[in-house]
Specification:
The complex is a heterodimer of chains A (388) and B (51). Chain A has 388 residues and is α/β, with parallel strands linked by helices. Chain A folds into two domains: 32 residues; 352 residues, Zn peptidases (Aminopeptidase). Helices cover 31% and strands 19% of the residues of chain A. An eight-stranded mixed β-sheet of chain A has the order 2-3-6-4-11-14-12-13, with helices on both faces. Chain A has a two-stranded antiparallel ribbon with strand order 1-16. In chain A, strands 5-15 form a two-stranded antiparallel ribbon. In chain A, strand 12, helix 4 and strand 13 form a beta-alpha-beta unit. In chain A, helix 8 packs antiparallel against helix 9. Chain B contains two helices and no strands. The two termini of chain B are 23 Å apart. The chains are: A alpha/beta (388), B mainly alpha (51). Chains A and B meet through helix 1 of A and helix 1 and helix 2 of B.
C-alpha cells in the first residue's frame, strides 16, 4: 500500500475513534444515569409492574410503583409521571408527591417514570440535552432528559403501520413506541404495549378510582392548559377546573376524550377499567417545532424568542411573554390540579375518600421553587432511598 | 417473533458495519474513506447498543 494512503487511513481512523468513543461514553452515561428518590413519610411500600403482570419482568419497563397510605377500603388514585419523559413537569410533580405527601385517608400510587425506556434516549435530530439539573437547598439533582417514544434500543424495528390493539385503528408507525398510544396494552405485544397492559392490570387489581396522567404540550398544539377527561369523569373535571381557576391562581380548561382517537390513557383506561382517567397538559415551549436553541435553559425557563414570534403571528394556543413558562410554574400547576381533583373527588364520593396533605400547591412551588421540595439523597437512610 | 426480527436487524447492522470497514481499508480515495467512516459511526453506536 502507498505509504501516504496508509498514513491517511491511520489519521482518519484516529479521528473516527476520537468522535466515536466520547460520543459513545456520553450516550452510555446518559442512558444509565441513576436518579435518586427519597421515600417520604407517606410511602408505605414500593412495588414493580411485574407484581401485576409477570410478562414485563426483566424488561427495562418494569417500572417502580411508590405506594402512599394503606389499603383500608377507601379510594385510590394512580398518578403517572413520565409517560412522555421529555415533559419533565410531570415527572417532577410525581417526585415531589413521593418525597413529601402524607395520607389522611385512601391511597396514592405514583409511577414517576411510567415509560423508563423512553427516559433513556433523546429525540434523534432534536439536539436535546442529555439531562437537566434542578437546584435544591443541598445542591443539584440531575434528571435524564428523555424522549416521547421508547428507546429504539429496547424496542426495534418499528412496523410500517402501527395497528392499535384492540381497536385495529391504524396509527403512525413510531407510535408503537408511544406509551400514550398503546393503552390498554397487550399481554403478548411489544414492550410499550406490555407496559400499558401491566398498568391496566395494576388499575384493576388495586381497584384504582382515578388515574391522573401528567403531561406537557407545545404551545402550537391546541390541547394545552387543560384536563382531558373520559366522559365518565365529566362532572369531576368540570368542578375541579372551576375550583382551580377560582382558587389556585391559574386557569385550566376541560376537554373530553374523543372516542375516535384510540390508544390514549384518557380514552382506553376509562373504557377498559372501572377507573376515571384524567390527563393534564401544561405549556412547554421546549417542545415547539419553531424553538431556538434546544438546551437545558429552554427546558427549565420556557423562554424562547422564536416561539414568542410565532405567538405574535397568532400561531399559539397559549400565551407566551418574556417571562416564559418556568418549570416551577408548570410543576405547581400539576400539583395544585391534583390537590383540587382529589378534594373534588372526595366530596363527590365520600365512600371512596382520598385525602392527602403536605403536597405543595402552585403558589408554594412558584414561591419556593421545585428544588425546595426535593430531598437530599445523601441524608436518606439506605432503606428509604431508591433509584429510577 | 419480535425477538427474531430484532436479532435479524442486529445481524444486518453488523454485516453492513463489516462492509463499511472493509471498503474503508480497500479504498484509495480519501473522500470515499471519509464517507465510509461517517456512515459507519451510527451503525457502530447501534451495534454496541449505545444509541
Amino acid at each position: 500500500m502507498n505509504p501516504t494512503v496508509n498514513w491517511r487511513k491511520w489519521l482518519f481512523g484516529l479521528i473516527f475513534l476520537a468522535v466515536l468513543i466520547p460520543a459513545g461514553l456520553s450516550f452510555y452515561r446518559s442512558r444509565h444515569l441513576a436518579e435518586p428518590v427519597v421515600l417520604g413519610p407517606g410511602v408505605t411500600g414500593v412495588k414493580k409492574l411485574s407484581n401485576y403482570f409477570p410478562g414485563i419482568k426483566g424488561s427495562i419497563n418494569d417500572a417502580k410503583i411508590y405506594i402512599l397510605g394503606e389499603d383500608s377500603g377507601r379510594g385510590s388514585v394512580l398518578i403517572l409521571g413520565g409517560s412522555h419523559p421529555e415533559e419533565p413537569a410531570g415527572r417532577l410533580a410525581a417526585w415531589i408527591i413521593i418525597e413529601n405527601a402524607k395520607m389522611k385517608a385512601g391511597r396514592i400510587l405514583v409511577i414517576p417514570t411510567a415509560n423508563p425506556s423512553a427516559s433513556t434516549s433523546t429525540r434523534p435530530g432534536g439536539a436535546y440535552p442529555p439531562d437537566y439539573s434542578i437546584k435544591t437547598p443541598w445542591g443539584e439533582q440531575k434528571f435524564r432528559q428523555g424522549d416521547r417514544w421508547s428507546n429504539p434500543l429496547d424496542q426495534w424495528p418499528d412496523p410500517e403501520v402501527y395497528i392499535h390493539y384492540p381497536s385495529k385503528q391504524q396509527l403512525a408507525y413510531m407510535d408503537v413506541r408511544n406509551q400514550n398510544r398503546t393503552w390498554p396494552g397487550r399481554h403478548d405485544g411489544l414492550m410499550t404495549e406490555k407496559t400499558c397492559y401491566a398498568m391496566t392490570q395494576l388499575i384493576r387489581q388495586e381497584k384504582i378510582d382515578l388515574v391522573i396522567d401528567l403531561h406537557e404540550a407545545e404551545l402550537q398544539y391546541p390541547v394545552i392548559s387543560t384536563i382531558v377527561v373520559h366522559p365518565k369523569g365529566q362532572d369531576l373535571a368540570a368542578l375541579a377546573s372551576m375550583t382551580i381557576s377560582a382558587e389556585e391562581g391559574f386557569d385550566i380548561g376541560v376537554e373530553y376524550s374523543p372516542e375516535a382517537l384510540r390508544g390514549l390513557s384518557h380514552r382506553e383506561i376509562g373504557d377498559w377499567t372501572e377507573a376515571i382517567p384524567l390527563l393534564m397538559e401544561t405549556p412547554e415551549p421546549f417542545l415547539d417545532a419553531t424553538r431556538g436553541k434546544t438546551d437545558q435553559n429552554l427546558l427549565l425557563t420556557g423562554r424562547d424568542e422564536f416561539v414568542r414570534k410565532a405567538g405574535k403571528h397568532g400561531l399559539l394556543f397559549e400565551k407566551l411573554d418574556e417571562k416564559g413558562w418556568p418549570v416551577d410554574l408548570r410543576v405547581g400547576r400539576h400539583l395544585s390540579s391534583i390537590i383540587v381533583i382529589l378534594k373534588t373527588w372526595s366530596e363527590l364520593r365520600p365512600d371512596r375518600l382520598i385525602e392527602a396533605e403536605e403536597i405543595p400547591r402552585y403558589s408554594e412551588v412558584v414561591g419556593k421553587t421545585t428544588g425546595f421540595y426535593l430531598k437530599d439523597p445523601a441524608r436518606a437512610p439506605a432503606n428509604r432511598l431508591f433509584f429510577e | 417473533m419480535p425477538t427474531i426480527i430484532t436479532l435479524i436487524y442486529y445481524l444486518l447492522v453488523g454485516f453492513f458495519s463489516v462492509c463499511f470497514l472493509y471498503n474503508f481499508i480497500k479504498s484509495k480515495k480519501w473522500s470515499e474513506e471519509l464517507l465510509y467512516l461517517i456512515v459507519l459511526l451510527p451503525f457502530l453506536l447501534r451495534l454496541f447498543r449505545l444509541k
